[in-house]
Amino acid sequence: MTKTKAYTVLSILFFIVDSSVASTFFNVVNLGAKPDGESDSTQSFVKAWDGACGSVTSAIIYVPLGRYLIKNVEFKGPCKSTNITFRIDGSLVAPPDYNVIGNLENWISFQWVNGVSIYGGTLDGRGIALWACKLANKKCPSGATTLSFTNSKDIVINGLKSFNSQMFHIVINGCENVSMQKLMITASGNSPNTDGIHVQLSTGVTIMRSGIKTGDDCISIGPGTRNLWIEHVACGPGHGISIGSLAKDLDEPGVQNVTIKTVVFTGTQNGMRIKAWGRPSNGFVKGILFQHAIMKNVQNPLVIDQNYCPHNDSCPGQVSGIKISEVSYEDIRGTSATQVAVKFDCSTKNPCKQIKLENVKLTYQNQPAVSSCTNADGFVHGVVEPAGCF
To answer: Domain range spanning residue 295?
Structure first.
């Protein structure tokens, strides 16, 4: 079959996006996808990606209304096109048997791509049965991340909904210049390891105007994250927004220049947390701003934990090598579900330095909360309640 005839069979259309740029258009239904939620449509998405990735112009992959069953799929670059857009009106659903994708790291993954945008759509990971298996301590697969981007840049995710992921919902790993906004991420409050968004080894990531309800961290920030901006996020249920766990490895890149502002935490286990294993590491946390946050019945609103050692495994008797400095908490208000609303438990070898508390007011059962600070050095501005740290 000639190349021209093949493209005719694949129903590739051309249309004008504006007066100067032509885009190649791929409708997954025209490529064989079935919007019935039962037929395996994986190869139709692969065909659409192969055509878009090989296009010399910008490309659009369109997913009409309906439910499309797809197994694990990898969209790999580098591509000829540096402008590929997924416009999703329908829903992508995982197989009903969690074993099909549960032993794989990712359900939908992008690797080595530039200029990929996702607008709209719903991703349904169907993770409820796997959570039940784990909670019952049965032999279960670890589960798959719903959506991941690795070693990619200039990425946009706008208006996406992610429900019931088996494991993490979205992972950004080794990426540059990623914009995420208007996301809705939802999982049960007791769903294990269902972090909403995890960022690591990446720079220039923004997360804006999103709601995250999950059973683990709403947003987790791993080693090597720099220039991260989080704003206008509603978090809860979940474990809050966490930098860490850090110090998993001795040689570990630091976390620097992170802004987290205008966030509402509702009924979460933690609010704003920095956590590091109590063991040697050359990593660091520096230049962090927590600003304009509201706590609603949060168990641990402000936490620095440099003695993290779950199950007393691989860390007893050691101290954290992570260096934490230049962390500011500004305009933090609301209620704590426990009496200790501010807990900074820092390393004896590497005390926390230059910690600033400014205009903080946290209460417990309509009474002033208390603070607990060890090996932490800093200063206060304005009214700070609970007082006593510096």
So the answer is: 217-389
Residue 312 DSSP symbol: G
Which of 180, 204, 228 terminates a domain? The answer is: 204
Question: Does residue 18 lie within any of the structural domains?
Answer: no
Q: b/e map of 168-203 (b: 16 or more CB within 10 Å)?
A: bbbbbbbbbbbbbbbbebbbebebbbbbbbbbbbbb
| Whole-angstrom distance, CA of residue 96 vs CA of residue 128 | 10
Indicate if 291 and 317 belong to the same structural domain.
yes
Asked, as a colleague might, if the bond just before 245 is cis with ω within 30 of 0, I would say yes
d(CA 132, CA 311) in angstroms, rounded, equals: 22
- Residue 31: CATH number of its domain: 2.160.20.10
Report whether 369 contacts 363 (CB < 8 A). Answer: yes
Q: Say whether 169 is catalytic.
A: no
269-305 residue pLDDT tens: 999 999 999 999 999 999 999 999 999 999 999 999 9
Cα–Cα distance measured from residue 169 to residue 154, given in angstroms and rounded to the nearest whole number = 20
Candidate list 239, 292, 311, 381, residue with the active-site label: 239
Q: What pLDDT band is residue 317 in, cutting at 50, 70 and 90?
A: confident
- Tell me the one-letter amino acid at 353: K
**Which pTM was predicted?**
0.93
Give residue-wise pLDDT tens across range 93-107: 999 999 999 999 999
For residue 19, tell me if it sits in a domain: no
C-alpha 134/C-alpha 130 separation (Å) is: 6
Residue 83 phi/psi, 5-degree rounding, is -150, 90
Q: Are 354 and 343 in contact (CB under 8 A)?
A: no
Please, which residues have CB within 8 angstroms of residue 132's CB and are 6 or more apart in sequence?
Answer: none
